[in-house]
Amino acid sequence: MHDRRVRVAVAVVAAAAAAAAAAAAVGAKIGVEFGAERQAFAAGPEIFPLSSVRPGQKGYGLTAFVGTQPERFDFEVVGVMRDFLPRMDIILVKSDDPRIVRTGFAQGMSGSPLYLDGKVVCAFSYGFRFNKEAIGGCTPIHYMLDEARQTTGQVGADPAAPVGPAGHAALASRDWDPFAAPLAPPTVHAPVGDLVRASVPLSVSGVDAQGLAELRDLFAPYGLEPQQAGGGGTGGENSGPTRFEPGSPIAVVLSRGDLSMVGTGTVSYVDGNRVLAFGHPMFQMGETLLPVTSAEIHTIIPSAQSAFKLSSPLRTLGALVQDRQSMILADTSRRAELIPVELTVKTPGGTRRFRSEVVRHRFLTPQLAMASVANGIRHIAPDLADATMIIDSVVHVRGFDPLRFRDHAWSPEGAAAGAVSGARGLRILTPLLFNPWAPVTVDRVEVTVEVTYRADVETLVGLRIPRYEVPVGKPAFVEAVLQPYAGRTRVVRIPFELPARLAGATLKLELATGDLARLDAAPPENLTQLFAALRRTYPANTLVATIYAPDEGIAVAGHLVPDLPDGALDTARAATSTKRVDSHRTLLRVVVPTSTVVLGKQELTFRVQNLK
Q1: Would you say the C-alpha torsion 124, 126, 129, 130 has a positive or negative sign?
Q2: How far apart are CA 165 and CA 162, in angstroms?
Q3: Architecture of the domain defined by 29-36+43-164+192-336
Q4: How far is Cα 355 from Cα 340, in angstroms, rounded to an integer?
Q5: Each residue of 587-596: pLDDT tens digit?
Q6: Taking a C-beta distance cutoff of 8 angstroms, is the pair 85, 280 a contact?
């Protein structure tokens, strides 16, 4: 009897040792599959290895069908698609759950965790368009964990970081345009074929049909699908779950307030304050900082093309810090600042306001600020009538005096968004955020529009100089022919005087409205010079006459040095191999204010009288 007990004890110990060895082997195998130790996710749920996935295996997934709480649904593994994306496999699954059979795998289910043997294996992320069977693809969780470890050390840094050589090249040109965007936004390219990334439903409120169409065009390259929805859940922004859990909704905030935009998906994996979701990117912008909230699912809208969850944001719970090929990563210990955009519209009927906050990001901020103002002006002043507008815009930048502008605009379609979007306070956001010298923090954008329903507009239809040869050292003038709306043409004289050095020269004169005139400033070489250049732009209720002379000066260190003799020009060019010195044509500029908004641009060439 004693020997038997000994043999049993030895067998148990041996079995335990074998089990421990097997577990260690599996752990080592998983560690190899994951490519690194799970240092940041050491306390997360157990993971089912991709190498053990086989067709026919059955498990369950978690997602919220209605409300905020995740519910279970069953699925079956169809197979594994190898290298579906670069160095990334996809697990094909199908479901006979009646709720999913009815709609298919819906937009907004992105990130729903799937489990085999009670261990998380993948996050739903891809689906078929026009599918007759509930089949989709999911991203193995270990890819998401691996990418979550990538870092540049810039999480939380101001996204308006220096843009490097591309930005400097844009500023080096003598025809530098302060309002030109130096870079195009990144685009998320969906895989080729019928299995496509499950789009993120972008719940939008505070827009009309035209605004929704514009947002769809704006976000189409990113795979985001704007859908009309409420701006907040039934309990508001301070209600809802206080933490994320696998299968619960997660929303990434782009704008909130009178214009609300949030992209909704599902939480895949939680380990402490680190939350993985989506199973695919949102914008694929790498490290960034955007607010994330819990969300409420109102319902799933069936669609023959692709069903989607209709949702609203709830309580802010953290910030998005990673946006990569296989996932987004949120950190519940972080918070992201938003930029207030305040629109005030004054009409004969009174004063109304439209307020929102948009994310702080150099690619997104200018577009979202413009969208907020455009939707606000359409909402407050929808009348389709001739409208003249005075637009005051102020951009508050941390560490600098506010940039203030007054613009004048006219539109035959009322206070149209297109006319208001020309406000310099909106247009300068791009050169500010893409400057190549230092991060710029925009604290607030304010736009005030005063609307008068009449056509105070004129068109520049002609330009003439009374004399063929213009004298030097004496007063001269150019005549601008303006055509008022529903009125007779009138002539505006613009005086100028040419220096004696231009005697006998042939010159070009350009007359343009202020918003079309080229900037009379050297390409800036630091932030202070950039701010000074932006303040020197002109509104549309001015006429700007510019005379281009054949003589050249130089632009050096952000300043213009005109009228240098040839020897000095040659010396300046030869003395440097950098862009610090560049040739610059001499300008003589006269600015004349007008009482109306002027449209158009004219040019002519003339000769200067020779000295006797």
Answers
A1: negative
A2: 9
A3: Beta Barrel (2.40)
A4: 7
A5: 689 999 998 9
A6: no
